[in-house]
Amino acid sequence: MASLETPVCDFGWKAIDFDLPGVDGKRYSLAAAKGENGLLVMFICNHCPYVKAVRDRIIRDVKELVGYGIGAIAIMSNDPQDYPEDSFDNMVKVAKEYAYPFPYVWDETQEIAKVYGAVCTPDFFGFNSRLELQYRGRLDASRKEAAPDDARRDLFEAMVQVAQTGQGPKDQIPSIGCSIKWRAD
Question: Which of 34, 125, 153, 154 could form a disulfide with 39 if both were Cys (CB 3.0 to 4.6 A apart)?
Answer without folding.
Answer: 34
